[in-house]
Amino acid sequence: MSKKTPFKIQSIVFHSSHGPNSKIPENPSMPQVAFTGRSNAGKSSLINAIVNRKDLVKVSANPGKTKSINLFLLNDHLFLVDLPGFGYAKASKEQKDTMVESIHHYLNSTETLKALFVLCDAKRELPIDEIEMIKTAYVRGMIPVLVRTKVDKLNQKEAIFLKNKMRELTKEYPNLEIVLSSTKSMAGIEDMRKILVDF
Ligand code: GDP
């Protein structure tokens, strides 16, 4: 049994917003935990569910619009970092590449980044961009967490298929944390809160 105390949101406040390639403020005593995923992966809904707030992060009425990196101060103790959604379907290849590059720039230049949550819709094959981000997290010594979102949309057969696929993936990446999540059923949300307790 884990001795960890339950994760409590004492406070969560918006801290600052930054352009894609700008230097993000760092404080050695304030670890950063970042969330990334392509547009529509369910990132805004997931962050809101984890911190138990309806609209801390806006659920995209206009997908692909938010290009900034947004920092929130959680419990006066860590920065929760909402990275811009990449790979928006209507963006050009050049725009998508630029967005992915700017996320790698953040991953590679932020010393206090301790964990990276990579979100991917459970119905999709895991794309190469997401795998590359997980690899970067490994190389940089962070904890990578792969979150397969919207699992409520899977039928039983699809759910079994996904679990088998994820089992295969952990053979390749032994320490990869994988969370199957849904903001509808709240599956996996408490698990992600527990991961945040560590920081
Ligand atoms: P973002 O673009 O990654 O921030 O994704 P959003 O949080 O805006 O979600 C995109 C769409 O997916 C919205 O219509 C959400 O209501 C929907 N969505 C998000 N999470 C879930 C989930 O767990 N289950 C289902 N069925 N839909 C979800």
Quick tags:
199 residues, alpha/beta, 7-stranded mixed beta sheet, 5 helices, 7 strands, 22% strand, globular, binds guanosine-5'-diphosphate
Describe the 3D structure.
This protein is of the alpha/beta class and 199 residues long. The protein contains 5 helices and 7 strands. It has a 7-stranded mixed sheet, sandwiched between helices. Guanosine-5'-diphosphate (GDP) binds next to α1.
Structure, briefly:
This protein is of the alpha/beta class. Helix content is 32%, strand content 22%. The longest helix is centred in the middle third of the chain and has 17 residues.
Strand content: 15-25%
> What gap, in angstroms, lies between the N and C termini?
19 Å
Count of helical stretches: 5
Q: Give the biggest sheet.
A: 7 strands, mixed
Classify the secondary structure makeup into a structural class.
alpha/beta
Using the CA coordinates, give the radius of gyration: 16 Å
Topology, pairings included?
Elements: E1 12-18, E2 32-37, H1 43-50, E3 69-74, E4 78-82, H2 93-109, E5 113-121, H3 128-139, E6 143-149, H4 156-172, E7 177-180, H5 189-197
Parallel strand pairs: 2-4, 2-5, 5-6, 6-7
Antiparallel strand pairs: 1-3, 3-4
Helix pairs in contact: 2-3
The protein binds guanosine-5'-diphosphate (GDP).
